[in-house]
Amino acid sequence: MGRLLILILLIVLAAWLVRRALRRAAPQADVPSAQKSDELVRCAQCGVLPPRAEARLSAGAIYCSEEHARLGPGPR
Question: Which domain holds residue 51?
Answer without folding.
Answer: 2-25+38-71
